Amino acid sequence: MNQRAADKEVSLQKILAAGAARLREEGMAGAAIAPVMQEAGLTHGAFYSHFADKNALVAAAFRYALLENRPCWMGRALKETWGQRLARLAKRYLTPAHRDDLANSCALAALASDAARAQPEFKQVYEDELRKSLHAICEISEDARIADQLKFEQAIAFMALCLGGIALSRAVEGKVLSERILEACRNAAGHIAFNEKREK
């Protein structure tokens, strides 16, 4: 890679990092070109050497955010039952620290409401990233066929509790209720798959 290409890659990473943080903190409206470029320390004009428009930036920054977040949340593989895995992941995800750290939080939770009102193109990006997370929860490759449909349905229910739990815990003012929401969702998520017949 020559120096010009290397410099371009560095600037792209800065834009994606700035865009991902703004998406998680402020939603799609926060990923306007000018503030993202300012936070990246680059000129407005440099934007168009990387992206055609704001929509392209939002999609790329969203993917980048999940590329960072997903491995951190999933952690390393452990020898555990399916129910134990869901309980462990719920404890890692549904925390006050995750609730409060918007800039580094899960982009799926941060943009769920925005995605519901977005154009079909972004909805497809959101769906693609959600599927990647569901596959990661089930510990199967992104392009693998889902063989165990019940397990996949349980992963969907688990994700709904996680995303909804974080969103609801952020939506209330009182910390006591907020933390009860997180605890209730952790407890519920951890029991989705506790069926001994499924864990043999």
What does this protein look like?
This protein is mainly α. It has helices at residues 3-26, 33-40, 54-74, 82-93, 96-100, 107-110, 112-116, 120-137, 149-171, 175-190. The chain is built from 10 helices and no strands. The longest helix has 24 residues, at 3-26. Mean pLDDT is 90; it is low at 196-200.
What characteristics describe this protein?
200 residues; mainly alpha
Give the beta-strand count. Answer: 0
In angstroms, what is the radius of gyration? 18 Å
Strand content: under 5%
- Compute the number of helices: 10
Residue stretches low in confidence (pLDDT < 50, at least 5 long) are: 196-200
Q: What is the typical, i.e. mean, pLDDT?
A: 90
Class from secondary-structure proportions: mainly alpha
Main beta sheet strand tally, sense and closure: none
Topology as H/E string?
HHHHHHHHHH
Terminal Cα span: 50 Å
**In which range does the helix fraction lie?**
55-70%
Using the alpha-carbon principal axes, give the shape: globular
